[in-house]
Design brief:
434 residues; mainly alpha; 4 domains; two-stranded parallel ribbon; 9 helices; 61% helix; globular; PigL_N; Azaphilone pigments biosynthesis cluster protein L N-terminal domain-containing protein
Amino acid sequence: MAEPIGLAAGLLGLATFAFQSSVALFKTVQSFQYHPKRIRDLEEELEALSGVLGSLAETINAITDVDLSALKVPLLRCGKACGEFEQEIIKCSSRSGGNRTSFRDWAKLKYMGDDIDGFRQLLAGYKSTINIALTDLNIRKSSITAEGLEDYKVLIKTATDDLEERLQSIDTKLETIFGNTMTDSGTDTAELQLLKEERTSTQNYLQICRQLSDHIDQIQLNAQRSGSSAAPENLETIPERLAYEGLQGCKNSLVLTVAKLERHMKDVVDRMVAKSKTATSSPEDVADLVRLQEEWETTRQSIDICSRAGAHLKENTSTIDNYATGDAIQFMVSTTGKTIHGKNRGIGWRTRQVGGHLSDDSLQKLSQDMTTYTFQNSGKDGNSLSNPDGAVDHKLDSEFNGRYGTGYKLTKSGVETSSSTRPTDSRQGNSPKG
């Protein structure tokens, strides 16, 4: 088992501690020969967790300009959980005679009231949190494919749902302990009751804030579906800009409110745990209470990491869907290094498209060149215009001006004929709309 370590240690030390603890637990589980499915599943989860922790340690060594300190609490708790569960296995096998060949009491193992499957889900939460933090870092350092972007969104959503479910489970366990403490504490009953009511009130207001934030997100999503990009740089009308600024102001205010409520919640829980410790005589019960408190804080921290990763994804990703017909120039370009997720779609023989990452100067020069090319080839001021087939050049005939757009004189059987109808795209077989 790895040596105990505290939050004062550096991030690399915590990552190494968690990695060594997960490897030690994996080896201990493997040393037993009886491996039912739930144990095989645990081994797979431990192997995946060790891989993610190893990648994290390598990243910390290689990159020094990105703050990953939010992972300190999850890493510490991950390492401690692996070490404590390893000790539970050793104690349980010792009570069964210490024979690693015949040990079959896996079902008796409990950790914070959960069985092996519950512990495996706990490890999955640590793994997902660390994986999201690493992916968030990679996206900010480089680009990502459209498929990778969608997979990452699903990962964040799934991890957040699982973590919130776990937080509810921990809350239920703490509620039970606090209720038992109130029954046995005597003179502290009144104070604990007040703290319990304060905790419930804080939970309710946090829920209200989250519901309001989700409602604002839905309004912005509906705006996107109705044709507005709901992004400040693309808003065209004054009402759109005012609505966007108002919604963003609400969201920013909600973020600050939620942060204050969560700090207050932590303070209330800490005080309730302290009261419950003094009323609990069993060292095992005190240890379980401390673990639940640490796990409650870790889960909240992990949810916050997922939330920030989702926010970074929105800030660093531009979603663009261009569609045009006829003579059009389409740009799907990032000059700020943002990840681009979208499509350039155009119908027409003179549609020109640009996509990728360019400097601002390069984009301006390219835009000027393409505009100039379009202007010169539009027949403006008597300039020549090429036939779509590229076969014959004809001067612009003024009789077509102001009617159905630019016209072309077509050659048929060696005889020039004038056409005042809509020009034909002979290469695609479509008639561009005037």
